[in-house]
Each structure stands twice: as C-alpha cells, then as structure tokens.
Design brief:
The protein is α/β, with parallel strands linked by helices and 327 residues long. The protein has one domain (5-248, 284-326): Nitrilase/N-carbamoyl-D-aminoacid amidohydrolase. 32% of the residues lie in helices and 20% in strands. It has helices spanning 16-19, 31-50, 78-103, 176-184, 200-210, 250-254, 259-265, 270-277, 297-312, and strands at residues 5-11, 58-61, 106-115, 118-126, 132-137, 157-160, 163-167, 189-193, 213-217, 223-225, 231-234, 240-241, 245-247. The strands form two sheets. Strands 1, 2, 3, 4, 5, 12 and 13 form a seven-stranded mixed beta sheet that branches. A six-stranded mixed beta sheet has the order 6-7-8-9-10-11, with helices on one face. A hairpin with a 2-residue loop joins strand 3 (106-115) and strand 4 (118-126). Helix 2 packs parallel to helix 3 (78-103). The longest helix is centred in the N-terminal third of the chain and has 26 residues, at 78-103. The protein is globular and about 70 Å long.
Length: 327
C-alpha cells in the first residue's frame, strides 16, 4: 500500500422485515417469498452503496448480504439453500459489479456462493472496473453454519492499485493465524465482513501484530483499526455507508517514530522488525487432544430447530438469534 486512500464500511443492520420471509422454520415460509426478500435486500444494499462518496477507494460490506443464514441451518430441506443461493448469487454479483464501476471504487461483498463442490460463505473483491478480482472461501465454520456450508482451506491475498488486500469472514477473526497468514503473504489491508459486533481489543491486536489496516464491516458498530493498534473509526447503529476514513500509506505508518527503536533493532519499519524476529520452528503445534463435540450433530440440530421455532412464536428460549444484534 504505497498510496493514501479513503475507506469505509457498509452496515445495514438485521433488515428484520426481510428475515421472517428468509426463515425456513416459519410456518408461512415459501421459496417465492424468500426470493422477494432477497430482491429487497439487494435493492437496499444497492441504494445505500450508490449514496457513498465518490472519493472512496474501498468499501467493505457486512457478511451474508443475501440473508440466508437461517436457511443454511435447515438440514431437512437442503434444496432451499441451493435454490436461493442460485437465485441470488448472480443478481448480487451483477449489482456489486455495476456499483463498483459507478463509484470507481473497490468493493468487498460477502454472501453465500455455489461452487462445483458445494456452497461456501464467501467474500468477493471487485475492482473499479466492475471485475471480480478476488474470491475468499471462509475457512473457519462455526456452529450451525457447518450444517450445510463447506469450509475453505487457504487465505489468498490480492494485488490491487491501492495495495495488497486479504479477506477474512466473521469467525475467522478468532484465530490469530488467519490474519498472520495474510500478512506473511504481503497483505497491507485486511477486509473482514462479519455479522457479529467487532470486539475492539481483537481488531486492535490483529492490526498491530501484523502491521496492517483492519476493516471490520458488521451489521452495526463496524470498526477500522490501524497498524498502531489505534481504533481509527467505530460506527454506531446507523445504517448505510459509514464515515470515510483516511488511511495513510502503510510504509509511513509502520515507520518507528523513536530513534532508539530503529537504532537498536536495525529496522525503521515495524513489520520488517517483527518478521525478522519470528521463529516459526519454536512455535508449538497443537497437541493431539480429543476435540469430539459434547453433543452429536443430530442432537444439536434438533435443539436448533426447537429453539428456532420457539423464538418465532415469541416463546422463551435458551438462545435467541435476535440477541446477537445487541452484542
């Protein structure tokens, strides 16, 4: 990242008025109503993106833009997910391509995508010409998301005119190795679409340890942190494209400000100092422990179905999807 740039996150909240139509555990669920809800979501994302400043170089959107999270947990009707992903994928691809070209801006968009071997939770990178130049398949798949979605197996980095960009999705940020894998391949910027509210200390740590800019776009409270570990911007609950943030050229930010740091380390660049001091052979591999879940998949799924239906009926449940909005 040799140039200064302006970046922002796009957060659209839960879009609760579309979620019941996209919940297969609802008694009034239908594929047709779900498709209408997908169309509505795509339209709203497009409208918000088109209001963005023309001075932006990079916009990162929240995870699961099509809103298919609950559909992906319905193992009794896998055809629902397949049909709705197939329906929405081409439409949102086309929309993001057109908007990125209209804004002359890089856009990171996140939604489920169908590949030859299954469906993945993905983040795609579009360039200012409307071309998809990068695709990342989420590696770390948590909980109910693993009912139907497949996991990726590597962390690619993409060369662009504004710097080298790495992509992560939601749960990936729990694992330090994910961000480090991107840094070791030269990433200057890590874009992180998510649904959960970003955890400040984690975002700050990932950015500082790897000496990168870290942009976490969520449903609310999106956050941008920098190589110094400082929070450069934290959004509130307002929906739409967040306030643009000016990001200095990465080399300028990584340079030691104190003479003795550069003198005694032999490096003026913090990342180069960290890389030179790394000792991969000294880092232990995880022991071969028993990682068998306490409940089997069938039991977990039955609890999930019961809880999901109870919440729709506004009954008291042990777990609430809606509570995640406040986290």
């Amino acid at each position: 990242m040799k140039v200064d740039l302006q970046a922002a996150c796009l957060q659209m909240g839960f879009m609760k008025d579309t979620l019941r139509a996209l919940n297969p555990f609802s008694v009034d669920f239908s594929i047709q109503s779900a498709k209408k809800a997908i169309d509505e979501r795509i339209s709203r994302f497009e409208g918000s993106l088109l209001l963005a400043s023309k001075d932006l170089n990079l916009i990162v959107c929240q995870e699961d833009m099509l809103g298919l999270g609950m559909v992906a947990t319905d193992m009794d009707h896998p055809n629902y997910l397949q049909e709705l992903v197939h329906y929405g994928q081409a439409k949102i691809n086309s929309m993001i391509a057109q908007v990125s070209q209209s804004l002359d801006c890089y856009i990171v968009a996140s939604y489920y995508q169908e590949m030859s071997d299954g469906i993945y939770n993905c983040a795609s990178l579009f360039d200012p010409h409307g071309k998809e130049i990068g695709l990342y398949r989420k590696v770390h798949i948590p909980g109910a998301e693993a009912f139907q979605l497949k996991a990726g197996n590597h962390f690619p980095v993409f060369e662009t005119a504004i710097g080298r960009i790495g992509l992560l999705v939601c749960y990936d940020d729990n694992f330090p190795e994910a961000a480090t894998s991107l840094m070791l391949q030269g990433a200057d910027i890590i874009c992180h679409p998510t649904l959960a509210k970003p955890i400040a200390f984690r975002m700050q740590t990932r950015a500082y340890d790897n000496q990168v800019y870290y942009l976490s776009a969520a449903r609310s409270h999106s956050m941008i942190t920098g190589p110094t570990g400082d929070i450069l911007y934290e959004a509130q609950k307002a929906e739409g494209v967040c306030q643009p943030v000016f990001l200095k050229a990465i080399a300028e930010v990584r340079t030691f400000s104190k003479h003795y740091d550069a003198l005694y380390s032999g490096f003026s660049d913090k990342q180069k100092r960290f890389l030179a001091a790394r000792l991969p052979d000294a880092y232990l591999r995880a022991p071969e422990n028993d990682h068998t879940p306490e409940r089997n998949l069938s039991e977990i799924y039955q609890i999930h179905v019961k809880e999901s239906k109870a919440e729709l009926a506004e009954e008291v449940t042990d777990f609430s999807w809606s509570e995640m909005e406040e986290e």
